[in-house]
């Protein structure tokens, strides 16, 4: 893995520290993939996550995995961002389009990877531990639950139980049910997991005021 990986639960305060929006004299072109949310709307999601990236100063490029030629769009960006939503819907879209292999290869070649919630989960070796938090039915076309394999750790986002759909009881059930088979990392909403040449570490990711 080269990356780096910037895996977020909710708050994105760590993002600009580990992936500055301007490098040299160029704005970072970040490919925004919303496949985890596409089943919720009839059109591409352009809500708070994307708006936050624009506010932080990135040049945001929408990448639609359902469109022919998305590979060219992906080849033209400096970093990739996988949004939150349903983990199984996201993995299904990545696998169906072949973007899982393309993204994993590019990250191993040094492209930064940013994933929030579902986008953080799919970076790991397996997405099965998300089965109590998301809908496995969204991944019925998956032959297995393999993730991108960019890290050996499966992030469990929203682990502080502050986000209404994911109360502490649900987080505890997830850790108890899957903790004996997977290396799980409960990640609070004001934290991020950074994986780079220096190793893996949890850092503060409090949203800037």
TrEMBL record:
One of its GO terms (biological process) is proteolysis. It holds the Pfam family Peptidase_S51. InterPro entries: Class_I_gatase-like, Peptidase_S51. The keyword Protease applies. Keywords: Hydrolase, Protease, Serine protease. SUPFAM superfamilies: Class I glutamine amidotransferase-like. GO terms for molecular function: serine-type peptidase activity. Belongs to the peptidase S51 family. This is Peptidase E. It comes from Gordonia phthalatica.
């Amino acid at each position: 893995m080269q990356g780096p990986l910037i895996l977020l639960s909710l708050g994105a305060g760590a993002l600009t520290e580990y992936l500055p929006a301007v490098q040299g004299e160029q704005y970072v072109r970040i490919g925004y993939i919303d496949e985890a949310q596409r089943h919720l709307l009839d059109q591409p999601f352009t809500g708070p996550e994307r708006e936050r990236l624009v506010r932080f100063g990135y040049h945001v490029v929408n990448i639609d995995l359902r469109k022919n030629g998305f590979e060219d769009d992906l080849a033209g960006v400096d970093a990739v961002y996988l949004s939150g939503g349903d983990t199984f819907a996201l993995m299904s879209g990545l696998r169906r389009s072949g973007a899982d292999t393309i993204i994993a290869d590019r990250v191993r070649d040094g492209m930064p990877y940013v994933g929030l919630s579902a986008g953080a989960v799919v970076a790991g070796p397996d997405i099965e531990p998300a089965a109590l938090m998301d809908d496995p039915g969204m991944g019925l076309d998956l032959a297995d639950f393999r993730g991108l394999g960019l890290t050996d750790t499966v992030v469990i986002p929203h682990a502080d139980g502050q986000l209404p759909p994911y109360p502490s009881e649900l987080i505890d059930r997830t850790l108890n049910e899957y903790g004996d088979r997977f290396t799980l990392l409960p990640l609070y909403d004001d934290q991020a997991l950074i994986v780079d040449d220096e190793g893996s570490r949890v850092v503060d990711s409090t949203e800037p005021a």
